[in-house]
Amino acid sequence: MTDAATLPETAAPIVKAKDVAYIRFSAPDLDAMETFVSDFGLVVAHRDDDVLLSRGLEPMPFLHVVHRGPAKFIGFAFEVDSEADLAALAASVPGCSPVHDIAGAEGRLGGGKRVHFVEPISGFVLEAVHGQQAEPLAPRRGRHTYNHAGVDDRIGVEQDVVGNRYPIKKDPGPSEVYRLGHVVAAVPPGAHQAFMTFLADTFGMLVSDSARMIIPPGAEEHFPPPLVELIKATGSDVMFQFMRMDRGAAETDHHSILVLPLMDGTPEAQFSHAAFEVFSMDDVFRGHMHFREREAEGAPYALAWGVGRHVYGSQIYDYWHDPYGHVHEHMCDGDRVDASYGPNTIDMTDPGQMGFNGGSQWGPTVEESGIDHLNGPQCDPKFANQPDEVRASLLSRDLSEVQHIVDAI
């Protein structure tokens, strides 16, 4: 096993991505997904019989795409700095499309150009976009001003930016999503490390925190045998990595991509979740209460994890399964860092570094709602009740049934 904190360093990347841009799904019932994105706090930017495009408040034309089709996560997109970056990807990545104008409803909403390809390790369709434009949307609510102990920033003003102090409401309504924060993939062991290397080589991603299973010689008997065998089989002790964009001296999110090892035996890579930033802790809790009420009314949602605060990245979080089991996270107050940060090593064998609450500073225990719920849609408590064809399509990376969608990207 390597003693390095990350996977071996590679040559200069093809491009240095700027951010994550959007995620892409297909689903049999666009009405159910339109209801979900509205409950989640996204704004529907376009809807027709074939596609649903939703956005946040930031000046991006869309963050969330759902095509009519089998229940499936298709992939996600990176934003890059220039058309020259798109050309570099087209010239260097096997199977990459030529640079082309963004067409259809997506192009009408925001213009721009893009490339796309099927990434062979994960089977996800990865896209890169440049030149999209949109006006920001005004929030319906004001931002919170908090009184901290000994420092009162709000004096003589009631804390009610939600507008539901009177009448007091059981359901405060959905959050307002500002932007897409990060995307997380769960990839079979060994392949997950190759996928991390691909992201670094192709999009210039840097490692913020690298989790390693550092098992001292002779101590294997103190760890679960499947975990020990997994580590030996991969040839590396890197279990997962929080990866961020390389923006030099400019700040960026602590992580825009997290790659996890898929340890439940599912043979193909899965979408773990995507995190969407809201304005404040109150927005996270507001979303939690809204989803609880909607679930109680019979909506096909389920809590995956939350509310809590992470250790790595520091976000206050709340995770929910959508009607097809894909996990969407509300988060706020994440760490912002520049290229000088890290990489740091997380020793997963040290309880003082990973903790007993799934890497949370505070929040639910793993037993109450844990990180094992983030391996993919198969972790959704509703998964067993889905029709056979839905369960099969959710877990399969076979793109044949959505090839027409991929071809039109």
How would you describe this structure to a colleague?
By secondary structure, this protein is an alpha+beta fold. The protein has one domain: 2,3-Dihydroxybiphenyl 1,2-Dioxygenase, domain 1, CATH 3.10.180.10. The strands form four sheets. A ten-stranded mixed beta sheet has the order 21-12-13-15-11-16-19-18-17-22. An eight-stranded mixed beta sheet has the order 2-3-4-1-5-8-7-6, sandwiched between helices.
Concise description?
This protein has 409 residues and is an alpha+beta fold.
Protein traits:
alpha+beta; 409 residues; globular; ten-stranded mixed β-sheet; 9 helices; 29% strand
CATH architecture: Roll
Helix content: 10-25%
End-to-end CA span: 40 Å
Which stretches are low in confidence, meaning pLDDT under 50 for 5 or more residues running?
A: 1-5
Text of the CATH class: Alpha Beta
Distinct helical segment count: 9
Q: Enumerate the strands of the largest sheet in spatial order, edge to edge or round the barrel.
A: 21-12-13-15-11-16-19-18-17-22
What's the multimeric state? single chain
- The helix-and-strand class reads alpha+beta
Give the biggest sheet: 10 strands, mixed
- Strand content bin: 25-35%
How many domain modules?
A: 1
Average of pLDDT:
91
At the fold tier of CATH, the topology name is 2,3-Dihydroxybiphenyl 1,2-Dioxygenase, domain 1
Looking at CATH, the homologous superfamily is 2,3-Dihydroxybiphenyl 1,2-Dioxygenase, domain 1
Total count of strands: 22
